[in-house]
């Protein structure tokens, strides 16, 4: 059963209680509190996670960290292993930062009935590490940006919904695969490259998407919102 369906059934059950002879002010207040908690859980649960990661990206943009956080193949192979993860939180300019921050918020809102705060928090770190390691197998020399992680998050929750029974979400999985295929063979958007003042890292998009799909297929059941 899909999580938003479970949410609907719980709300319907509450409405049934309200229609009984116990229709009194204390009952109404109790139901209102439960409804409020359910709404917070299903709609605002991801807000703190998004805010925290956006703050991390903003801090990573400060000049103090501009030389020690970006993903750099030579530096990583020389022992600066933290760049594997931190490179995903750095950006070329403020446009790049704003674009990825807004995209994270939109994706979190889109999958708010499927994603739990725990899965989102852990998923970002896992994808950051996997993308950072995966890029070492490519010819990429330097990389900054959160877009690879964003592709992974989208693929993860789209496939999760499909596994749960929402077959229409397979269209979302197909859409992200078509996108990375287009970027790989045709090329990424020139407008995006101009906006971020850098080459769009399609390799990170591919790696992020593939790992997002793999993690979705292997995820623990407790990651999924109940």
UniProtKB/TrEMBL annotation:
Entry annotated with the keyword Nucleus: no
Annotated InterPro entries: Peptidase_S54_rhomboid_dom, Rhom-like_SP_proteobac, Rhomboid-like_sf, Rhomboid_protease_S54
Membrane-spanning segments: 46-65, 118-137, 143-163
Domain Peptidase S54 rhomboid: 79-218
Domain of life, per lineage: Bacteria
UniProt membrane topology term: Multi-pass membrane protein
Location(s) in or outside the cell: Membrane
Single GO cellular component term: membrane
GO terms of molecular function: serine-type endopeptidase activity
Primary location recorded for the protein, binned into one broad class: membrane
Protein name as catalogued: Putative Peptidase S54, rhomboid
Natural source organism: Vibrio nigripulchritudo
Lineage of the species this protein comes from: Bacteria, Pseudomonadati, Pseudomonadota, Gammaproteobacteria, Vibrionales
